[in-house]
């Protein structure tokens, strides 16, 4: 995990969450309410709300669970998905994660340009839910 922490920096973890929130997780997660966002515990950085919000179309907002994440949870999920014997994602998504690792450097960490919305979605799901439940 020491190597992962060295190359999956706080900034690269932020980049992964940003990519996920801009399109990767939007089919299973919704924006946090002010109350959910305010409930962010000390030491946590991101609020992920598992659920849907159909209020714009006359529906309801349904929340399954609110998840609070930190960079170490993103790092652990990344490490789990990087493993050659992982069985969470298909070869394509696994390939993106492996490529990000192979293209890492001392200054910038992993190359997050290889982490597309699908890969970011998988990382955030694994970090928040402990499994790939959606998609």
- Rg from Cα: 15 Å
Largest sheet report:
3 strands, antiparallel
Number of helices: 6
- Topology as H/E string? HHEHEEHHH
Q: Terminal Cα separation, in Å?
A: 27 Å
Give the uncertain stretches in residue-range form: none
Biggest sheet strand line-up = 1-2-3
Helix content bin: 40-55%
Mean pLDDT: 95
* Derived structural class: alpha+beta
User: What is the overall silhouette?
Assistant: globular
What percent of residues are in strands?
5-15%
In total, the number of strands is: 3
What key phrases describe this protein's structure?
alpha+beta, three-stranded antiparallel sheet
Describe this structure in words.
Helix 2 (10-24) crosses helix 6 (117-129) and helix 4 packs across helix 6 (117-129). This protein has helices at 2-7, 10-24, 34-38, 71-82, 91-102, 117-129, and strands at 29-30, 46-53, 61-69. With 135 residues, the protein is an alpha+beta fold. Helices cover 47% and strands 14% of the residues. A hairpin with a 7-residue loop joins strand 2 and strand 3. It starts with a helix and ends in a 6-residue tail after the last helix. It has a 3-stranded antiparallel sheet with strand order 1-2-3.
């Amino acid at each position: 995990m020491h190597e992962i922490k060295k190359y999956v920096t706080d900034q690269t973890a932020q980049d992964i969450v940003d990519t996920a929130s801009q399109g990767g997780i939007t089919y299973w997660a919704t924006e946090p309410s002010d109350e959910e966002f305010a409930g962010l515990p000390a030491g946590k950085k991101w609020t992920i709300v598992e659920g849907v919000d159909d209020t714009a179309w006359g529906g309801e907002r349904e929340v399954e669970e609110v998840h609070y994440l930190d960079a170490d949870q993103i790092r652990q999920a990344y490490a789990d998905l990087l493993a050659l014997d992982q069985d969470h994602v298909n070869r394509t998504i696994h390939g993106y994660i492996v490529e990000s690792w192979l293209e890492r450097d001392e200054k910038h960490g992993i190359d997050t340009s290889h982490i597309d919305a699908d890969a970011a979605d998988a990382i955030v799901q694994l970090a928040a839910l402990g499994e790939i439940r959606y998609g």
